[in-house]
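Practice problem 4.
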């Protein structure tokens, strides 16, 4: 069969150098999760510019800080600082007390995300969001963390296993919010989040059919 050049991919997904390395656990089949969620594929991607929800939805001790964000073609990156273990002398992931950790959130088009941590354990988390119909999407999750010294297991164990199980729970905490959101033609952003949200939605508009881009830009709000 022939491929219509107008419908051919215009960009390639990113390489994930951690995959296949001897010092990282295998992601498949140990971490795979697939959820059918009543939500638009852009909803999980907008988490990257909504640091406040990490406190209110996921229980962080304080609202994380949006450090930076930028767009480059099909790639959008948002960097957020999250304090792990706030208010606790020690936790499994912060044995020496609270840590301010940078979480790097990368979005590729509307539907592919790659989150990267260097602490508390070097980890990559690819996720994919595929529209099923006008209401539902499939949310695919996997994760790979750095192998513990001396570990010979293919799948994660120790701290890596605990971190993976925590993230399984974290992603499901978002589902009720997405499923009950109402569309606003003109958004009401909080002042602290308006620049990042606007930037992401303006970036995302390029991936929609031309007739929908005007509505998408309106949903982006004012650039300033």
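Answer key:
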């Amino acid at each position: 069969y022939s491929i219509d050049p107008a419908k051919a991919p215009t960009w390639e997904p990113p390489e994930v150098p951690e995959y296949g390395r001897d010092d990282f656990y295998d992601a498949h089949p140990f971490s795979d999760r697939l959820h059918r969620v009543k939500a638009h594929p852009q909803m999980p991607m907008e988490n990257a510019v909504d640091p406040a929800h990490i406190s209110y939805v996921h229980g962080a001790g304080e609202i994380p800080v949006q450090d930076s964000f930028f767009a480059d073609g099909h790639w959008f990156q948002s960097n957020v600082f999250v304090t792990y273990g706030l208010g606790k002398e020690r936790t499994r992931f912060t044995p020496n007390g609270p840590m301010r950790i940078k979480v790097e959130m990368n979005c590729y088009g509307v539907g592919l995300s790659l989150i990267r941590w260097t602490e508390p354990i070097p980890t990559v988390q690819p996720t994919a969001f595929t529209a099923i119909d006008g209401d539902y999407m499939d949310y695919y999750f996997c994760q790979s963390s750095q192998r513990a010294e001396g570990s010979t297991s293919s799948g994660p164990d120790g701290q890596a296993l605990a971190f993976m199980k925590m993230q399984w729970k974290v992603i499901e905490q978002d589902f009720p919010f997405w499923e009950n959101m109402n569309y606003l033609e003109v958004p009401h952003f909080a002042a602290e989040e308006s620049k990042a949200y606007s930037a992401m939605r303006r970036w995302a508009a390029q991936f929609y059919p031309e007739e929908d881009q005007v509505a998408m830009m309106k949903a982006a709000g004012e650039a300033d």
